[in-house]
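Input chain follows. Return structure tokens only.
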Amino acid sequence: MKKGINHAPWEQAFDRVLTPLEMFIHRQTTSGVLLMICAVMALLIANGTLYDQYEHFLHTQIGLSFGSSKFSLSIHHWINEALMALFFLVMGLELKRELLVGELSSPRQALLPIMAAIGGMLVPALCYVALNPDAPAAKGWGIPMATDIAFAIGALSLLGPRVPKNLITFLIALAIVDDLGAVAVIALFYTAKLNLVALAWAGVFTGLLAVLNLGGVRRPLPYAIVAIMLWTAMLASGIHATIAGIVVAFVIPIRPKFEPAHFIERVKGITVKLQKAMANGADIIHNHRFRSLVDSLGNGVKLVQAPAQVAENALHLPVAYLVIPIFALANAGIPVDFAGFSSYLGNSVTLGVLAGLLLGKPLGIVGLTWLTVKLRWASLPPGLNMHHIFGVGLLGGIGFTMSIFIADLGFVDRPEDLLMAKTGILLASAIAGLGGYIWLRMHTSNPEA
């Protein structure tokens, strides 16, 4: 036991048990593995004896009532409208960070993944429309545009040191731009009839968030309260409520109150005062001067960190290990008629999704990357070649989370088409993930060998 450190009776025993679990949770591959497990579980439930209970549970209403006023949503809607708003919030925070200080902050550095993402959105949509030119099946054109970043990064991480770090960075930047495109598609083309009054209130709450930012408010509670109001207004407006997450992400301050140099000087000054305060006693419970200085130090620790960075770090694990797996459990449950599975593959919606994700994604990503390099608008990152880019193009065909999300919006009143779309998404994602992994394993070498 180290001098000056107090341990609770069972604390060290808990640490020995929990430390390996924490290490496992923080691995990049874990969220992808958990997502896969939940998707398989949902499929097993949907094709087993528990399907009726599964459907009944998802359609159970949960809400609040105030006298004669009542607000309620089904569990399925709470997951897709509320929990997924947290996913969009984290996605927006990641995008904001990349645009300001990350891989997308330099125009020349950002151009290659941006062009790759544009190709990876346009070509899949064209592939889908080519097979589904007429309504209502044509409404699914946005489904194959999206890449599931958790699954794609998870599949890439399974290759370990064989994969150049620049390739992971390229895929992350591509997926972030891809997600932004998916958000724009949802907002512009998958929005129901607009409620202008509710939309006006959403504008008011957005303005209030901007006032908090400009006013130097850095505590999370005011932002959280207004964000809930914004989400409620978005829900009533007809624009999908999850867009509120993106809006909130872009108004949370990205710059800290204290610069690092100022913080260090502040810590030095407080440290000197703490040493002097020790003269009043070493017991912090009764030493009020010492406790107030510790509080001041704690406030400084908060103010040297950007609120957007703090929020992203705080929400990353809950979203990766709770929100997305719960979304998979609620949306990947597809009852499959194995006897008539061949008819699924003959359906134009299924074929459109398969063609978009398995053919359009690699063609679009590789094609526009090659063209951008050929025109000398940008160059491939050091250590990468077109074999690597093709592997990323294959992994880009893992649609899953965002693709299912868009399918639910596009075919909300057409359960048969929704079933066909989800079948295509799951089948294409499995093939794309396996194909991308095998391709990159064949065209990369292990530096530790």
